[in-house]
Automatic annotation (TrEMBL):
It comes from the Bacteria. It is a multi-pass membrane protein. This is GtrA family protein. The chain crosses the membrane at residues 12-32, 38-59, 80-102, 114-133. It is found in: Membrane. Keywords: Membrane, Transmembrane, Transmembrane helix. PANTHER family: CELL WALL TEICHOIC ACID GLYCOSYLATION PROTEIN GTCA (PTHR38459:SF5), PROPHAGE BACTOPRENOL-LINKED GLUCOSE TRANSLOCASE HOMOLOG (PTHR38459). The keyword Cell division does not apply. Residues 16-133 form the GtrA/DPMS transmembrane domain. Belongs to the GtrA family. It comes from Enterococcus lemanii. InterPro entries: GtrA_CellWall_Glycosyl (IPR051401), GtrA_DPMS_TM (IPR007267). Pfam families: GtrA_DPMS_TM (PF04138).
Length: 138
């Protein structure tokens, strides 16, 4: 029984990491396009990249990572609002750490973005597992 639970947890973490990497790729690509190709400022670029990566993450986390199979629209809406709320908290972490690392510590944009994403991924996993896609007792 313990081995089965450990395998399930390992699968969940593995899927989260895979989709977390894909979400980070979405985030970085959109950040690059908006900041470097469209020449938008840092805050606007980071906000747009965050929005698109949150949509991608919600869909993949709900369906494949945490296996939230409740199809009722009320449940999905509740999960979506919680997901967005906790992603807003991690967006604050992301934006705050970017500003500190770029403006005060003089890190390069992409190096700072990479470091901030590590903290964001950990925070988002914990928020999603414990607060958004909680397993409901039958």
């Amino acid at each position: 029984m313990k081995t089965l639970n450990q395998q399930k947890q390992l699968k969940e973490i593995s899927l989260y990491l895979i989709f977390g990497v894909l979400t980070t790729v979405v985030n970085f690509l959109v950040f690059y396009v908006t900041k470097d190709l469209l020449a938008l400022n840092l805050v606007v670029s980071n906000t747009i990249s965050w929005l698109l990566s949150v949509v991608f993450a919600f869909i993949t986390n709900k369906k494949w990572v945490f296996g939230s199979n409740d199809k009722r629209w009320q449940t999905t809406l509740q999960e979506l609002f919680k997901f967005i709320f906790y992603r807003l908290l991690s967006f604050g972490l992301d934006m705050g750490s970017l500003i500190v690392m770029i403006d005060y510590l003089k890190f390069g944009d992409y190096f700072a973005k990479l470091i901030s994403q590590f903290f964001v991924i950990v925070a988002n996993f914990l928020f999603s597992k414990w607060l958004v896609f909680k397993k409901r007792k039958e």
